[in-house]
Structure formats: C-alpha cells, structure tokens
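Anyone able to model this chain together with zinc ion?
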Amino acid sequence: MCVLFIVLGVIIVLFLLYLIQVKKVNKGRQRAEEVYRNTVIPKFEDKGSLKKLSILPLIDSKSLNDDFRTENGVSYFASADDKNILLDLGFNRKKEHPSPLLWNMEKLGKSFKNIDFLVFSHAHLDHLGGMKEHKTKTFSISQGVTETGDIKVYAPVPLKASAFNPQLSNITVSKEPTVIMPGVYTIGCIPRHLFLMGNTEEQSLAFRIEGKGIVLLIGCGHQTIQRIIERTKMLFDEKIYAIFGGLHLPILNKGNVSLLSLVQYAVGSDYAPHQGLSRKDVYDAIESIKAENPKYVGISPHDSSDFSINAFKKAFGDKYVDINVGQVINL
Ligand SMILES: [Zn+2]
Ligand SMILES: [Zn+2]
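re: yes, here you go
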C-alpha cells in the first residue's frame, strides 16, 4: 500500500513538473515568435559574390569511408574563392586530443593554420566541441593545444575561447545578419524555444555565387527551414541555389530507433517529447524547399534519420547530395 502511494506521489510530481515546463515553453515560444516577427531585416547592400565554392563535411554522423571518424555533431569546411571558413567544431564527446575533427582534418590535408573564419551556428554541445563547452559557453577545437592562424570568430551568442585555444579571442557576436567577406554572410539569429533545451539562437551561413545564386549551409536547423528560407529571401534578390546541413528532422523509424534519433527527437524541437516531430514535418520541409526549386539539396545525418533522408532522396532525386565526412561538394 505504502509503495503504491509513493509511486502515485512520484507520478503526480512528474506530471506537475511537466505542466510547469509546458507553461514555461509556451511563454518562451511566444517570446521567440515575437522577436522573430518584430525583427526588421533590410537587404544586404554588399553585392559581392564568389567565383567558386566547395563544401567539405569534416564532422557528421556518416562518412565516405572508414578512414574517417564520425560523430553526432557538425563541422563543415567551406572553401570560398581564396578564403577558408569553418562552420562549427563538432562534438568530441569522448574529450579526445586529437579530436575527431583534427583527426579527419589531418586525413584530408586540412589545417587550422589555413582557416580564416570560424562561424558557430548555435551554442549546442555537438557544435561547440563538447559538453563542458556547452555548459560554460566556451568552445574547443580539441582537448589539447592546437596551432591556428589568425582566425576571426562569429557566434550567435557571447562565447569565450577555452583554455586550449585562447588565441581565438577575436569573436564577433553576429546576432544580426553579417557580412563575413564579400559573398559570405550569416543570415542572423532566428530564435526558437526548444522544449527541453530552452531558447536557442541559431544562425546559418549564406554564400552568394556569381551567376548561380545563394548556397545555404545550416548547422542544426532548429530555426526550421521555412524560416531560414524566409530570412534568406529578405536578405537577397538571388534565388536559392543549394541547401545543405542539419534541418532537425530526427523522425523515429519503426523498429529501428537509434539512440541518436531518440535524443535529437526528445530535446531538439519545440514539441513536447510525447508529441514529437512527425512525418508531416518532413513533408512540409520538403515542400518549402521544392517551392524554391534549388539545384542541390542535402541534409545532415547528425540530426535526421533514415526516414527523413530517404524521403528527401525520393523527393529531390538527382538533386539530392549525400552529406558524408570526407566527400567534397563542388558548387
Ligand atoms: Zn542543436
Ligand atoms: Zn546539432
């Protein structure tokens, strides 16, 4: 009888906590919505554009072959004319040195000495280089000293370089859309209040390629692709040429539920975990991208699932490009 009362008590407490969380999330959602709607976004005056662009995934959860380390995070290397830009630093969940990022860079002949700009999409653990980094609002390339060149850092929220890379202190908080160099931009923060992770400010990279249009490179896509597209169209006159990166679509496959998709499903959207993302979210994302008729589309496996990737492959056919560590995408 006593055990029954304890169990009942625990259930009631959990239910009350859940109701408090729902109230908090609803308030946060409302605030994020207001911020988004009230942000005035003028078109970029800078008309610079790139002659060539290539994107090389350095960290993601799938790779071209077994030579590379994979993990549930993101780091994408972009070569834009004569400059190199890195979006995010991966996860380094096991706190290694060299990190999986450095390991893969070495395999691919890339070095931090040749990186000009480091851009963070958002301040989550799988993009800042670790759990501790997420908690302390810092970032690490690896859990040991790494030599770098003179790198300019852009982050959507205030961040500090960790003790392993104190030289990376030239940090700009790019809350608003920002010109990184002619032809390379951030589209500015789009806030979203996630059910368990709270308010998340995320930005994406946009590249303008001469005669082709805008290439979007996205970290986790918590903003939703619909809003990323909407923001891009406010900033640029050119059409969207390509969309790559995380769109946060970890739909659970029946009978094949990976721990990765379960965690992403539970914590990474503004739905309550029992409601979760649905197939409709995947089809809605596909429709919104199709309306722009881009030439190439590829979604990050780190925050999607086989169901979502297959749905995109089916919808985009030849236009679909796999995102694999070590597989360069020339644009
Ligand atoms: Zn995230
Ligand atoms: Zn992520």
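Residues 2-38 form the longest helix (37 residues).
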